[in-house]
DNA sequence: CGCGGAGTTGAGATTGTTCAAGGATTGTGG
DNA sequence: CCACAATCCTTGAACAATCTCAACTCCGCG
């Protein structure tokens, strides 16, 4: 997906996504872009189910490949997922905001991350990371709304639109199609729905012509229509 | 409730609750306690429905009297409440964490607040406020859990236990009884339930001997039992 | 070739919503 | 002091949304 768009000799393609993510959160100087591309730390590999962040870790990390989530375990083998962590995302704690392990960050697929704490010294990068932190906070409120105020159809649609948007922002949505490497049960754990009902709702979205799906991907061919249909507003409108 | 416990000549009793709230979040020096008691700013009065925080306000405030909430409006006259703001609570933005109006803070009853931004220069107060901010963040995750993973009975019980605990921490729960000056519809807007179902659930809690209610107050006579029954764990257990 | 994981579908039970109505309480004006 | 309106609480009955259980398919993989 990425290797085709090589304008300059990029040595570490796996840092391209965090770079794009930060760049679309705030302007970066050429120095800062270079600092990101030159990150020399070893990558950390997590198997599905492993923790992306060690319990005491208060650093910052980029997600390079694979999906993760923030969640809290429930009794039995149930859990509530609070947010999905996508390739390119920044995870961990900003220095000023020592919000320790109020939730667990866990890999949902095979995933790789890299330590990015050193980059906080660059003002543009710090500003961009702060902006991303605020976006994540806003998405948490979106999630509260999905769980508390939306029915299954609206909730699933909202979530897919959010994930679609997050992919599109960093150039990972070709033709309204984006990667979705986790199963329907994970959608259920996020939305507070049973796997069966998630399935029925996806079927309904498909029947309405709003969704196409294949192994490991979704596509929202009429994303604009769907957004209007379920009242999905991209980022702001809460300013005021 | 408060005026009886006057050991030293306290001139401004209305600052007693924020003081207690901060004190139970982190140790305060005598100077810091005095600084809180001497807050000279004018009190701000909000009628039910008014905003507690002006849209651009990025300061810190104490809630002195009355209840408020954080919420987002929905289409029509519906809304989703994210959290309740109680007397003694700190609201607003910490300096390092410029998370602007991702939600609205609104009065649910007649309420008074006071500007507390000046107190941030005291390190003990700043630390306590940071700890309270983290508690609030944790309660947001609790709320996600209630909405996503709990049924009505568990959700209502959890929420009442939380509010009971928050009152008890600052000495406002006489005999497991605490103030609850908002109606059942507000509980519904918080829990994503209809007013009718909230009512039926409260009735059920009462029938089970877990709840007593009167105009403007609730009581949880067997809070321990109820907490065990619905799996309510006070603050931590997420550390790790 | 068979096995396991993920997606799909049906039928019945459970939970929660809506609409509608009736009681209780309180504040207000006559 | 009483009538009245407003607000909140309570209850019933029909309806809709969602869950559970159980089966069955499809496909990739050893």
Note the topology.
The structure is a homodimer of 240-residue chains.
Chain A (H helix, E strand, L loop, with lengths): L15 H8 L6 H8 L5 E4 L13 E6 L2 E6 L5 E7 L4 E3 L11 E4 L3 E5 L7 H27 L2 H18 L7 E3 L4 H8 L3 H13 L4 E3 L2 E3 L3 H8 L10
Antiparallel strand pairs in A: 1-7, 2-5, 2-7, 3-4, 3-6, 8-10, 9-10
The first copy, chain A, binds a DNA duplex (30 and 30 nucleotides) through α6.
Distance between the termini of chain A: 39 Å
Structural class of chain A: alpha+beta
Annotation, overall tally of beta strands of chain A: 10
Q: Any idea what the shape of chain A is?
A: globular
Radius of gyration of chain A: 18 Å
Widest sheet, order of strands of chain A: 1-7-2-5
Uncertain stretches of chain A: 1-7
Biggest interface reads:
A-B, 35 and 35 residues
Description:
Two copies of one chain form a homodimer. By secondary structure, the first copy, chain A, is α+β, with helices and mostly antiparallel strands. Chain A is 38% helix and 18% strand. The termini of chain A are far apart. Mean pLDDT of chain A is 92; it is low at 1-7. At the A-B interface, helix 3 of A face helix 3 of B. Chain A binds a DNA duplex (30 and 30 nucleotides) through helix 6.
Summarize the structure.
The structure is a homodimer. Chain A has about 240 residues and is an alpha+beta fold. Chain A is built from 7 helices and 10 strands.
List key phrases describing it.
homodimer; three-stranded antiparallel beta sheet; alpha+beta; disordered N terminus; DNA-binding; 240 residues
């Amino acid at each position: 997906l990425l290797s085709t768009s090589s304008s300059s000799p990029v040595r570490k393609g796996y840092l391209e996504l965090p770079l794009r993510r930060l760049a679309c959160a705030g302007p970066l100087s050429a120095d800062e872009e270079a600092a990101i591309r030159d990150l020399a730390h070893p990558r950390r590999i997590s198997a599905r189910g492993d923790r992306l962040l060690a319990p005491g870790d208060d650093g910052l990390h980029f997600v390079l490949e694979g999906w993760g989530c923030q969640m809290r375990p429930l009794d039995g083998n149930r859990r509530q997922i609070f947010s999905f962590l996508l390739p390119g995302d920044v995870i961990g704690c900003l220095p000023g905001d020592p919000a320790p392990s109020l939730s667990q960050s866990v890999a949902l697929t095979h995933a790789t991350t890299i330590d990015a704490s050193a980059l906080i010294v660059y003002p543009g990068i710090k500003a961009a990371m702060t902006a991303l932190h605020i976006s994540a906070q806003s998405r948490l409120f979106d999630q509260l709304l999905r769980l508390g105020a939306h029915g299954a159809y609206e909730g699933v649609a909202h979530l897919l639109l959010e994930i679609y948007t997050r992919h599109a922002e960093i150039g990972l949505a070709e033709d309204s199609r984006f990667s979705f490497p986790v199963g329907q049960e994970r959608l259920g754990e996020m939305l507070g729905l049973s796997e069966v009902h998630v399935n029925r709702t996806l079927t309904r979205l498909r029947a309405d012509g709003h969704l196409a799906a294949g192994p490991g991907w979704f596509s929202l061919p009429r994303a604009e229509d769907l957004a209007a249909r379920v009242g999905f507003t991209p980022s702001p409108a809460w300013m005021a």
